[in-house]
Amino acid sequence: MTNYKSPDFGAQRALQNNTLNLRAVLAALKEGGLKSVVLTSSCFENEEGAGDEPLRAFSPYGLSKGLTCQVFRYYCAEAKLPLGKFLIPNPFGPFEEPPFTCYLMQSWRDGKTPSVRTPDYVRDNIHADLRFIRQV
């Protein structure tokens, strides 16, 4: 996803791309043996994370993710396929790049405020533990 941090991110186009031919795709996959669908979600989308209610989308990218989930929810229900979601966390923990924690610790040690920027790489290729997939 390019330019996802921009307030000019094309939420409607992203929704269209994310759900293009979804009904037909789900039907074909179900015919081939699909038993359930799992979406990745983002801490930027509505109804995710923590905070004051209502938990609104943080950005147009988050809006596109939330709308995508709504469309998937509708068509999965129509196809009688369970839908689950797995929240992609911020890259902190066993899947982060090793220099990240070191950078945070050095900044705090030196009394500086660290700056966290999303690097130009795909970070969604992480293990999705089935215990953390919730039904929607």
Radius of gyration: 18 Å
Shape: elongated
Share of helical residues: 25-40%
Please report the number of helical segments.
Answer: 4
Beta-sheet strand percentage? 5-15%
Element order, helices and strands? HHEHEHE
Measure the end-to-end span: 24 Å
Spans of 5+ residues with little confidence (pLDDT < 50)? none
Number-wise, the strands total 3
Please outline the major beta sheet. Answer: 3 strands, mixed
Explain this structure to me?
The protein is α+β, with helices and mostly antiparallel strands and 136 residues long. It has a domain at 11-90 and 129-135. It is built from 4 helices and 3 strands. Helix 3 links the parallel strand 1 and strand 2. Helix 1 packs parallel to helix 3 (60-78). It is elongated, with a radius of gyration of 18 Å.
Task: Name a few traits of the molecule.
alpha+beta; single chain; 136 residues
